[in-house]
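Quick one - first record:
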Amino acid sequence: MNFTYTEEQEMLKTMARDFLVDKCPKTMVKEMAEDEKGYSPDLWREMVELGWTGLVIPEAYGGTGMTFLDLAVVLEEIGRACLPGPYFSTVVLGSIPIMKYGTEEQKQKFLTTIAGGEAIVTFAITEEDGTCDAASITLPARMSGDSYTISGTKLFVPDAHAADYLLCAARTGEGNEDGLTVFIIDMKKTGISVTPLKTMGWDKLCEVTFNNVSVAKDSILGQPGKGWEIIKSATEYAAVGKCCTMLGAMQQSLDLTIDYAKERSQYGQAIGSYQVIQHYCASMAIDVDGTRFSTYEAAWKLSGGKPAAKEAAIAKAFTNEAFERVSTLAHQIHGAIGCTMDHDLHYSTRTGKAAALSFGSSDYYREIVASEMG
């Protein structure tokens, strides 16, 4: 694999950073954390005009037809800026599963509206125990004539409060992996209630409750009872995508820390002149580069349609723990100032920790790596 950006990716990275520096200052991040919507509709429209919502959607459905590796470049910059809003939910959790498993009719209906910025989409996977394995999905969807009736609760659903459509993993049969089905549900349907949850990362996670919600058979994504393949694929993309956003947050923390170590004076000299601070910064750089290499290898494999379960699991397991080490050292070097609301460091820490808890812990992904090793 060549880790050098292509000319197009370099331009994409520069454009994304310049745009987010201008449009997503930390004052806006804080403002959106306290906002009911959690994102700026004006900023969303500007992202749509830049083609970001259709980045990986084929041109036939109104997108730009770029790769997941290209999207990884943008996601890293989004993580660096701590961009609030439903971009990750819509593009990674929503459009990619529909691209891979949707019927032509579903692609025409949903991908075109996503690319055009007319629809916000998310994926409801987790339930009470918060894990992503097949056994934890128990929400029942019972066949009733020509439709299914869904009753129960999904937890930690990102951006469900703002979503127009919800991909929902439900159980339609006995067994473990074989009894799962994914539905595309219109959030305007009667019987759906959404409750935003308080989170440490200021991200908008929600509890979604279904009370006898009727869903037609043509709303099934893929095949009935074969939803585990979709869920597993979506989780792989989501895990690698979160690694990209954590990488951006880690790089931002490192950059802030290096600048601070050069400027902060103690005992008549910059604290960066002390060996212990230099070693702390070196350890941070090692973890940032390790995250970059493992993350982009997994993104490269996913982009090429290659099996990537092991690489995605390695990236998420490593990144979760590398982020913890990087953020801890960043705060140790900054001291109290890094924890204040007036400093930018805590934004990266908040969003990165939230991403580390998403779509599986390090131990969950160690199990996958062990399984892939036979």
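second record:
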Amino acid sequence: MNETGAAFDPSLLPEADENFHFLAYPLHILVWTCDAQGACDFVSPSWLTFTGREMRQELGRGWLERVHSEDLPVVQRALDEAIGAQQPFRMLYRYQRVDEIYRWFVAQGMVRNTPAGGFAGYIGQCFDVTAYQEGEAELEHATQRMIALLKQTRLIAVVL
């Protein structure tokens, strides 16, 4: 019973509301937090769905296991520099999905503070931008193919 004498109805909790669930647990955004040393201390359910791994595997620096090997040094350096400066950051890297396909992500980290105002770490989100990245890559490939073709001809191309 609540203070009005009515029985408690769990369906009235915000978690039962579809809009609340979409905002609190978005499938299209991976949410995370890390401490002042950069150790991940939380990932959202959408993160776990994306990777197919358990929370314990992602915590600490375990999440780095899914970063593409070519991007890993850049990601680690950017994170370490942001922590050293205690500043927000944004970076682009490839991250492996549960089906072992790499997707391009933009990760944003916003500074979290302690109640006293000290640096506590970051709260962040990752957005899948693969469609945009692959579009740019396809445009670059098309441009390179066109340049190679033009080099084989005696035609002059003018681009305005």
